[in-house]
Amino acid sequence: MSSDKNVKIVAFVGLAGSGKSSAVEYLTEKHIPKIYFGGIMYKEMEAAGIRRGDWEPERKFREELRVKEGKGFIAKRAADEARNLIAAGQHRIVFDGLYSWSEYKVLKHEFPGEMTVIAIVTPKHERKKRMANRPERPMTAQEVDDRDWSEIENLEKGGPIAIADYFIHNDRDLDWLHEQMDTVLRHIEFYD
């Protein structure tokens, strides 16, 4: 368990197409390191021979792995990566892809007072449009609905969204998203 007043960690949460990746990219462009939860899962999938982009086998694998390893296993690995970055002198870190209530609890325990959860919320019709048009792994409207249900019911994703420290309504353009992010990040003194 860490406890360093100088360390600030931001975790973005939200349903598919809400704008989490855009928020993370905005901060990585400012040279703030990210820990990508999906990358931890992708390593596991690759080791198991599961092909990325094939939604149903991928979903099944993710859920089975969380049953086998515990629902918070990705957060435990992400916490290790964060501690390594902190030991190397990083004081600002972004968690990209906090999914479950179990992961939330692990990270709040590991980084008490250091982690701020920011939920990015977007109207469903806008998320569906974004997901249909994204270049990597586009999804149909039905696939977005199915993913929402799966993430809420099976991965407990609603918990971290509901209990987030801040909410950003991403219902306009990127400049609007960035403006809202800057307001929150200045408030929590994330920027040096």
> Based on DSSP secondary structure assignment, what is the total number of beta strands?
5
- As for the CATH topology, it is Rossmann fold
List the total number of helices: 9
Strand order of the largest sheet: 2-3-1-4-5
CATH level-four homologous superfamily name: P-loop containing nucleotide triphosphate hydrolases
Structural class: alpha/beta
CATH uppermost class: Alpha Beta
Second CATH tier, the architecture: 3-Layer(aba) Sandwich
Uncertain segments are: none
- Element pattern in H and E: EHEHHHEHEHHHEH
Overall form: globular
Strand content: 5-15%
Percent helix? 40-55%
> What profile does the largest beta sheet have?
5 strands, parallel
N-end to C-end Cα span: 24 Å
**How many separate domains make up the residues?**
1
| Alpha carbon gyration radius | 16 Å
Structure explained in plain terms:
The chain is α/β, with parallel strands linked by helices and 192 residues long. It has a single domain, classed as P-loop containing nucleotide triphosphate hydrolases (Rossmann fold), CATH 3.40.50. It is built from nine helices and five strands; from the N terminus they run βαβαααβαβαααβα. It has helices at residues 20-28, 37-48, 55-69, 73-87, 101-110, 124-133, 141-153, 158-162, 174-187; strands at residues 8-13, 34-36, 92-96, 115-121, 166-169. The protein has a five-stranded parallel β-sheet with strand order 2-3-1-4-5, sandwiched between helices. Helix 4 (73-87) runs parallel beside helix 5 (101-110). The two termini are 24 Å apart.
